[in-house]
Amino acid sequence: MAKGEIKRTEVKNASLLDNGQLLSVEWADSHHGIFPTDWLRGHRFDQSQPDPIEGNRPHLWGHDVMSTPHFRMFEFDEVMESDDALYDWLKMLFNLGIAVLKNAPIEQCQQYSLQKRLGYDSPAPSSSGILNQAKLHMKSYHPVYTAASLQLHNDLSYYTQAKGFQLFHCKQQVTGGGGDSLLADGFKVAEDFRCQNPESFRILTRIPWEYKLAIDKNYHVARREVIRLDTDEEVCQITINDICRAAMLRIPLQDVKKAYVALKEFTNMLYHPDNLVRYKLEAGDILAFHNHRILHGRLGFSMKADTQRHLETCYSDWEIVSGRMRNLKKQRLRKSQGENQK
């Protein structure tokens, strides 16, 4: 038999043990195996048990999402102490791509506590460190650290594998007008765009734009389509970031104008009042969102000597959300089965 070739063997004998809870199999080559029948029932190829969170699908939303039954605010302590509250918060985050925790302690590093609640030791490092202090610097030229408005964008566009889970902990908010966060559901807008302008949609799913960030000892470069589709042709990632979008566009000259026109049309739709949420974070709020789906920005505010707006931000893999949901859903199922057997 050639190296690496799998030897075919047949079942010689099979029998049930332990009142049908185990299946004993004797193979023709004399080796023997015992398999739990519950496990076998759950692994029947196309009749296998479904993913515990399979029924949760993205719920697309517009400007009024925070006033719909699909959305509610959660208390930080509630989510930290109750598994049921944690599951409900994660489920909303998974479905909507956004969720808010209220009344988190103002002290630094609350994201560490939340990450540990989700099963990870700490947020992921990025070019800004593990925790980034996004606050006003009077002499900074980077728009994040000024009082200027920020256009809608996705973070870490210059990473080949951009982190999908993002947290903003509001530690201080400016008084008066401005400083509001802007949010848009990129998946919803992309689906509307697909219907209303299919040719421009096709262009944005095929042309890769280049993003870069040169900082200290790192020089990050990534190329990605504005609208990324999965194998089922469903939208799975949006990437827009004018701050980090490079001047380089590596496409044929005849396609350049069409690419920019398509990008402008899509951007205009993102900013349509029907698609834009405006929410002013308060001190103690933690805004969580799906960085591959939700675009975020900020209204500008007046620059004064006593003015400060301070967000502590961090990133993690989006899988931390789906993974913890599965764990909690299985706990619920086991608890329910145990109660039914009483």
Automatic annotation (TrEMBL):
Residues 74-315 form the TauD/TfdA-like domain. Keywords: Oxidoreductase. InterPro entries: AlphaKG_dependent_hydroxylases, TauD-like_sf, TauD/TfdA-like. It comes from the Eukaryota. GO terms for molecular function: oxidoreductase activity. The keyword Oxidoreductase applies. This is TauD/TfdA-like domain-containing protein.
